[in-house]
């Protein structure tokens, strides 16, 4: 009891010491947010818009399941700059951040530096988190983080990668891993109530959580995770209609139906220009391998069978399965999903083979319609472009050229051929 009394007395002395009037009383909350109070570093996350249709794309929920990794640099009163070569990740090195019921947690907990003028910390993040395995970080397409050495470490410990000065980087080999990049998202205010929005480093693709100062006890370093890759998403088919000589100049006649029997999209061997790249977590810039590593986008072909037609011989000329409708944009039908990732700055080539039928209602024919079946094949290259977080669709245009007739009346030939007959026949005298 004496100890409790002394503790309360000490707190009371702290609360009332130096007060000159009742409205100047120091509150317990102000003590908690004072510059000399140890304040833990906490994290908050947000996700950029999720790619619709992706079965492997990271969402806020999968992020909570898989967690993320953080590299943090303490630079005292010096600003963190792009391509710096002075500091290594001396505050956090591939720190695993996990979701626990209602908040992000990690261990060991780190505390903000107390001196506001000597307390700059920069945070860089990626997801999904990849744990150390020996001297390398490997999971899915994430091969290596911060260029871990192939020697110098033991199982479960980081080799010499944590000593490397400069921006943290991730080496990625194309796979079905949706690699995320953690950008800044309005981190909470400092103990001096200054808003912290992060900053875009020179040449960077977006603002990151650099040069942050001590926050209040309930403050969070907030990451907005963006998809760092390019997603090859929908496969669509659109008709190019020939009307009066103008391609796509009009609508398909109601008496004609185009149905796809099969559609196969096969990645060509070594059709990807480069399957390996390095993502700089400070700038968001991708660097491709100096010697391109070509490969295949996916070992399995994408086969879509009868997306418009249930049977080869329909009961009616316009029999189409229920649920198959055209979109309102350019009459394009969505028929499937590619489901591949590409590293920005690369491209992938596919062989597209499509078999389709064109049926036209015609009551004068025995079946009540005409039907023409044909198979077309060709290669297409999808360029990922240089920007991350982009979604690409493959649009297949089927050209329909109507059969046209022309008729003219020619001039009579000037040389006539005569065939004679005399009625009655003339007879020579004396014969």
What is the structure about, briefly put?
This protein is mainly beta and 431 residues long.
Description:
This protein has 431 residues and is mainly beta. The termini are far apart. It is 6% helix and 36% strand. The strands form five sheets. Strands 1, 2, 3, 4, 5, 10, 11 and 12 form an eight-stranded mixed β-sheet that branches. The chain has a four-stranded antiparallel β-sheet with strand order 8-9-16-17, with no helix packed on it. Strands 13, 14, 19 and 22 form a four-stranded mixed β-sheet that branches. The chain is elongated. Mean pLDDT is 75; it is low at 1-34, 50-55, 134-138, 146-158, 245-249 and 321-330. The chain contains three helices and 22 strands.
Task: Walk me through the topology.
Elements: H1 2-16, H2 28-32, E1 43-47, H3 60-66, E2 68-76, E3 92-100, E4 103-105, E5 120-127, E6 132-133, E7 136-137, E8 142-145, E9 169-173, E10 180-184, E11 209-212, E12 221-227, E13 230-243, E14 246-247, E15 256-267, E16 276-280, E17 286-288, E18 302-305, E19 333-342, E20 347-361, E21 369-383, E22 390-400
Parallel strand pairs: 1-12, 13-22
Antiparallel strand pairs: 2-3, 2-5, 3-4, 5-10, 5-11, 6-7, 8-9, 9-16, 10-12, 13-14, 13-19, 15-18, 15-20, 16-17, 20-21
């Amino acid at each position: 009891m004496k100890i409790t009394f002394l503790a309360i007395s000490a707190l009371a002395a702290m609360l009332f010491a130096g007060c000159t009037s009742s409205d100047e009383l120091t509150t317990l909350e102000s003590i908690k947010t004072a510059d000399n109070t140890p304040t833990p570093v906490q994290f908050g996350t947000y996700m950029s818009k999720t790619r619709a249709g992706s079965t492997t794309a990271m969402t806020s929920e999968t992020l909570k399941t898989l967690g993320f990794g953080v590299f943090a640099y303490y630079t005292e009163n010096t600003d963190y700059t792009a391509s710096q070569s002075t500091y290594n990740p001396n505050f956090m090195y591939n720190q695993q951040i996990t979701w626990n019921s209602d908040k992000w947690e990690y261990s060991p907990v780190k505390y903000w530096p107390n001196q506001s003028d000597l307390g700059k910390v920069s945070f860089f993040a990626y997801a999904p988190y990849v744990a150390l395995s020996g001297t390398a970080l490997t999971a899915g397409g994430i091969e290596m983080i911060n260029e871990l050495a192939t020697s110098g470490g033991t199982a479960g410990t980081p080799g010499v990668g944590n000593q490397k000065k400069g921006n943290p980087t991730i080496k990625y080999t194309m796979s079905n891993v949706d690699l995320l990049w953690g950008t800044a998202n309005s981190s909470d205010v400092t103990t001096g109530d200054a808003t912290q929005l992060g900053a875009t480093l020179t040449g960077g693709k977006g603002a990151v959580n650099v040069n942050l100062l001590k926050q209040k006890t309930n403050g969070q370093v907030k990451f907005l995770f963006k998809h760092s890759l390019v997603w090859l998403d929908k496969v669509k088919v659109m008709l190019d209609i020939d009307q009066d000589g103008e391609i796509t100049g009009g609508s398909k006649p109601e008496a004609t139906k185009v149905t796809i029997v099969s559609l196969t999209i096969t990645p060509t061997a070594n059709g990807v220009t480069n399957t390996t790249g390095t993502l700089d977590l400070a700038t968001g810039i991708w660097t491709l391998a100096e010697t391109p590593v070509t490969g295949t986008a996916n070992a399995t072909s994408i086969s879509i069978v009868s997306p418009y037609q249930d049977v080869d011989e329909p009961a009616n000329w316009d029999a189409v399965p229920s649920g198959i409708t055209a979109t309102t944009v350019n009459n394009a039908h969505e028929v499937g999903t590619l489901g591949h990732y590409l590293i920005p700055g690369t491209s992938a080539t596919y062989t597209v083979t499509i078999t389709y039928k064109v049926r036209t209602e015609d009551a004068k024919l025995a079946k009540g319609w005409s039907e023409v079946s044909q198979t077309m094949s060709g290669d297409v290259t999808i360029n990922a472009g240089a920007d991350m977080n982009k979604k690409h669709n493959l649009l297949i245009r089927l050209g329909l050229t109507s059969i046209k007739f022309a008729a003219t009346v020619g001039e009579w030939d000037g040389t006539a051929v005569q065939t004679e007959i005399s009625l009655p026949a003339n007879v020579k005298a004396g014969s």
